[in-house]
């Protein structure tokens, strides 16, 4: 079986008349992207993608002002800043000058949309607008991003990134059926983009990958195999709600390559067997610096079943790369290139069903045969 790719959902599928923002703004919006889907298996056997819908202003700059959408109590409002105080080179965001440190605002607001697929991930069964997850408090007034879903002991946990001026936090939801979700609160109260809960307990504890961010990193010693920068850390919890960082490091950028100069979590680790070894399969993203955004690729590491801070297999070669042929029919919508961002995985026997965001625009489903995983230690 060879890897097979297709875009299962794109902005044309989204009906903004059924958006949580519909009727709130005196300005036209459009779908900047429908991407980065969390993925899981429903009790029915169908698959469920939790899709990030980035709803953007059609004209963010007008009358000398640049605008952002913000949730406020029970409504959505527009904020405006003088455009000469802003750097608007990135279509997804703008930076405001003069604050003494980096201050950013978004040209879109993201909410989460459940999309049901056939068990093979090839077709849409239903789009559950009535079960969309939108901001409900000031901790997510600038939106909810990048869901990751984990099945554990018959239930589901979903981590999301909630954005506000006070914090860039990780928020947690729980569910019995992966369609109706209960908000459990903030679980990481620092800037952390990629918290992924392992799909199962390790020695009686919940485990998660995290990625705390900052503007300062301390150097590794000269000659170290590691490169300083954003990396994947680990945390444990007795109940899945209260988390303590693990003392030992997780997956780190290697000094010998720029292809993974920055990295972070992708799909929640699942217990499986690849490359002749059994362990926790972690799909993660590596970012090669280039222009504003960089080149995003998906890599894999197999972690020890009982000591998940230990890598037991992996490859320096990317598992997935951006595929321009997939987005060619959407060329008029493209605003970014060279980005594939994996956010979900399902074990389907002799292959994996992998869900990714393609070009921050659409949802990509890739069928990856287990024979594609070859242990290749870095050179």
UniProtKB/TrEMBL annotation:
The keyword Signal does not apply. Coiled coil: none annotated. Pfam families: Glyco_hydro_130 (PF04041). The keyword Transferase applies. Keywords: Glycosidase, Glycosyltransferase, Hydrolase, Transferase. Transmembrane segments: none annotated. One of its GO terms (molecular function) is hydrolase activity, acting on glycosyl bonds. It comes from the Bacteria. InterPro entries: Glyco_hydro_beta-prop_sf (IPR023296), Mannoside_phosphorylase (IPR007184). PANTHER family: GLYCOSIDASE. Belongs to the glycosyl hydrolase 130 family. This is Glycosidase. It comes from Novosphingobium bradum.
């Amino acid at each position: 079986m060879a890897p097979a790719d297709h875009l299962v959902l794109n902005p044309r599928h989204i009906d903004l008349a059924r958006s949580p923002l519909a009727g709130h703004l005196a300005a036209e919006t459009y779908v900047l992207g429908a991407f980065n889907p969390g993925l899981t298996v429903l009790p029915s056997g169908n698959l469920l993608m939790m899709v990030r819908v980035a709803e953007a202003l059609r004209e963010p700059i007008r009358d000398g002002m640049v605008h952002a959408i913000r949730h406020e109590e029970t409504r959505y409002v527009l904020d405006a800043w003088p455009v000469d105080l802003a750097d608007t080179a990135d279509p997804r965001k703008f930076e405001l000058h003069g604050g003494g440190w980096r201050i950013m605002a978004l040209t879109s607001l993201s909410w989460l949309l459940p999309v049901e697929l056939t068990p093979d991930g090839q077709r849409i069964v239903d789009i559950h607008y009535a079960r969309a997850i939108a901001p409900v408090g000031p901790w997510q007034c600038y939106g909810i991003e990048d869901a990751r879903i984990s099945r554990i002991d018959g239930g589901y946990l979903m981590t999301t990134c909630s954005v506000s001026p006070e914090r860039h936090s990780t928020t947690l939801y729980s569910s019995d059926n992966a369609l109706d979700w209960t908000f459990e609160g903030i679980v990481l109260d620092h800037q952390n983009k990629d918290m992924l809960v392992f799909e199962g307990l390790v020695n009686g504890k919940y485990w998660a990958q995290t990625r705390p961010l900052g503007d300062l990193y301390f150097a590794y010693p000269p000659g170290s195999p590691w490169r300083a920068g954003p990396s994947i850390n680990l945390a444990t919890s007795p109940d899945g709600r209260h988390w303590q960082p693990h003392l030992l490091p997780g997956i780190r950028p290697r000094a010998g390559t720029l292809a993974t100069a920055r990295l972070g979590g992708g799909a929640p680790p699942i217990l499986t067997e690849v490359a002749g070894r059994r362990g926790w399969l972690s799909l993660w993203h590596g970012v090669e610096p280039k222009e504003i955004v960089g080149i995003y690729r998906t890599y894999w590491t197999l972690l020890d079943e009982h000591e998940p801070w230990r890598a037991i297999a992996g490859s320096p070669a990317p598992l997935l790369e951006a595929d321009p042929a997939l987005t060619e029919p959407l060329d008029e919508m493209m605003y970014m290139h060279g980005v594939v961002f994996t956010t979900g995985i399902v074990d389907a026997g002799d292959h994996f069903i992998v869900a990714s965001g393609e070009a921050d625009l659409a949802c990509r489903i890739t069928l990856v045969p287990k024979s594609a995983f070859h242990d290749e230690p870095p050179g």
